[in-house]
Design a protein that fits this description.
Number of helices: 18
Radius of gyration: 20 Å
Low-confidence stretches: none
Bound molecules: pyridoxal-5'-phosphate
Helix content: 25-40%
CATH topology of the domain at 6-14 and 67-110 and 238-457: Rossmann fold
Largest sheet: 7 strands, mixed
Structural class: alpha/beta
CATH class of the domain at 6-14 and 67-110 and 238-457: Alpha Beta
Mean pLDDT: 94
Shape: globular
Number of strands: 15
Distance between the termini: 57 Å
Length: 458
């Protein structure tokens, strides 16, 4: 009997290539449109925001893209990450299911976000960029990019969603320790921020607004600063595929193959990073894993949003992409999973979901925290509230398997730890956590909040 719990790889097993799902995807991506002209964007427009190497990755259809050696060197600080069988959770649930999780919380900044932060800082460095701007929700992305920018000696300005800036001051201290400058968004530093503050001085902020501010600062810097995004874009999803490539090898070590692969979705990067290599196996090697994206009912872009062209940001400065969206001016309720408070979803993931290759479920905040606490009490790890959405879905799968009396192999991504989210746990434990639902009235008419693209887009 094999009773192994942790499935570990060696440093030499760190993937040498990222996997580009767009080489195999049966659905071709829609064009990215200019926010003013609605015409397909030119590389010139994108070059104001991103270094050329990342723009090329954004549109690449090459199946495997080599990971530069300096990036792999830094990956060695936390990769390969462990795959762990949640035996104690299985026992408490009394389920015949086998539950595995890939633990990305071992990275120095505490989440999967470091996987792309290091790559983006590297490509900016070799392109001669001096400084980066970015947004952050809960602070996970800001922390990861702060570390990466320090490693490559780049300056960094972080526009942090105000509600998280106030709820999570320790994330700010971490970013500042790495050497970044952090601002509570909406700020008075940009036209986009000033416009929001003029209509509502107490606006809690949103990822959409923070993106507008960071994009504006980069776009108006005369090439001095570039912009960096922690999710949504193809190159970000690409960089995260190290998670799934390692997990494939580790499931092999465990002698099992997942019936279902689960991840939480904000912009879609940690889910895609785990799921896309398994999707490749579905498409090319006759495997049949169900791939399940888990979102909060408070920001249900996949399960309740419309699939259409929309702006990536609130002030309509970022490119327009075709995605599942709740409308670019939608401000999700202030749930504690700040990293999941985004109005849209990665275009590549949206297209795959629309075509039926991916499934999605939405879960409410209270059951998510119940799952998080059960996980902490059985497996010992305090999960990030974002990751706890995946735990909720994994537990629900395991309970279904128990009802059906079948063995089911479940793999989920534990995208980060929750050591900076203790005030959220305190709210849950003291009974003051709200159970946010989809704000029906706020987004009853999403189509009024997305751009009307009148001309046919080929
Ligand atoms: C940012 C974040 C997420 C959500 O972003 P994705 O791009 O959808 O992965 C999920 N989990 C953690 C821990 C995060 O920091």
């Amino acid at each position: 009997m094999n009773n192994q719990t942790r499935f570990l790889l060696n440093e030499t097993d760190i993937p040498r290539f990222w996997y580009n799902v767009n080489a195999d995807s049966p659905v071709s991506p829609a064009p990215v449109l200019h926010p003013v002209t609605f015409e397909p964007v030119t590389p010139d427009f994108l070059a104001a925001l991103f270094p050329m190497e990342l723009i090329l990755q954004e549109v690449s259809t090459e199946r495997f893209i080599e990971i530069p050696e300096p990036v792999r060197e830094i990956y060695k600080l936390w990769r390969p990450t462990p795959l762990i069988r949640a035996r104690r959770l299985e026992q408490v649930l009394d389920t015949p299911a086998h539950i595995y999780y890939k633990y990305e919380g071992v990275s120095p900044s505490g989440s999967h976000k470091s996987n792309t932060a290091v790559a983006q800082a590297f490509y900016n460095k070799i392109a001669g960029t001096r400084a980066l701007t970015t947004e952050t929700g809960a602070g996970q992305w800001g922390s990861a990019l702060s570390m990466a920018c320090r490693f490559f000696e780049l300056d960094l300005e972080v526009y942090m969603v105000k509600v998280s800036y106030n709820q999570k001051p320790y994330r700010r201290f971490l970013m500042e320790t790495y050497g970044a400058q952090v601002f509570a968004s909406p700020t008075g530093r940009t036209q986009a921020g000033l416009a929001i503050l003029a209509s509502d001085p107490d606006h809690p902020g949103s990822l959409g607004i923070a993106i507008s501010e960071a994009v504006e600062v980069a776009a108006t810097s005369n090439g001095q600063k570039k912009y960096s995004l922690g999710s949504v874009l193809n190159h970000v999803l690409l960089h995260q595929t190290v998670i799934g490539e390692e997990a494939l090898k580790q499931m092999d070590l465990a002698g099992e193959y997942p019936d279902v692969v689960i991840g939480c979705v904000g912009g879609g990067s940690n889910f895609s990073g785990l799921a896309f290599p398994f999707l490749r196996e579905n498409l090319k090697n006759q495997k049949n894993s169900r791939l399940v994206a888990v979102e909060p009912t408070a920001a249900p872009s996949l399960t309740r949003g419309v699939y259409t062209f929309d702006y990536g940001d609130t002030a309509r400065m970022a490119p327009i992409v075709k995605m599942h969206t709740l409308g670019h001016d939608f401000t999700p309720p202030s749930i504690h999973a700040g990293g999941l408070r985004y109005h849209g979803m990665a275009p590549t993931l949206s297209a795959l979901y629309n075509a039926g290759f991916i499934q999605a479920v939405a879960v409410k905040q209270l059951p998510v925290f119940e799952a998080a606490v059960l996980f902490a009490q059985t497996e010992g790890i305090l999960p990030a509230p974002e990751s706890a959405h995946a735990i909720r879905a994994a537990i629900d799968e395991a309970l279904e398997a128990k009802q059906a009396g079948e063995k089911r192999v479940i793999l989920f991504n534990l995208s980060g730890h929750g050591h900076f989210d203790l005030s959220a746990y305190n709210a849950y434990l003291s009974g003051t956590l709200e159970d946010f639902d989809y704000p029906e009235e706020a987004i009853a008419n999403i189509s009024a909040h997305v751009p009307q693209i009148s001309r046919a887009v080929s």
